Amino acid sequence: MEFRENEAIYSQVANFVTEHIMLGKWLPEQKIPSVRELASDLQVNPHTVVRAYEILQSREVISNKRGIGFFIHSDAIEKIRSFSKERFMGQDLPELLKNMYLLGITIEEIGAQFESYKKTMNQSKQI
Of 39, 66, 94, 105, which is most buried with the most CB atoms under 10 A? Predict the structure, then answer.
């Protein structure tokens, strides 16, 4: 995983976990990698993963079953969608709209790109 400089690593690790859940790579009620496993896989400090897992626990995406490990909540996808949509609408979308305006990009151009992206994503799910 390549980390972006403008965002805390623990936040990027939390996003990595939520993305795996949203893409169906990790399923609801499934055990996820331990702190040490994920830290090793991503080549980060275990404390960074602990911080990411704490955030996800506070959002009720995952829970810790003492002595067993971390598990994905049954309604994790809905919770991820909810807080991600709120963040997108409040932070990311205004920036996107500003850039569209400055660059003269139309809604139609974005729509065409989005439809192309959806086709690509649907094809990759079938493989």
Answer: 39
pTM of the model: 0.81
- Whether 2 maps to a domain, the answer reads no
Among 51, 40, 38, 46, smallest CA distance to 8 is for 51
- Is residue 100 domain-shared with residue 70, that is, in the same domain? no
Q: Where are the alpha helices (DSSP H) in 9-87?
A: 9-22, 35-42, 46-58, 76-87
Is the pLDDT assigned to residue 81 strictly greater than 80?
yes
Cα–Cα distance measured from residue 96 to residue 109, given in angstroms and rounded to the nearest whole number: 13
Q: Which 8-state DSSP code applies to residue 25?
A: S
d(CA 78, CA 74): 9
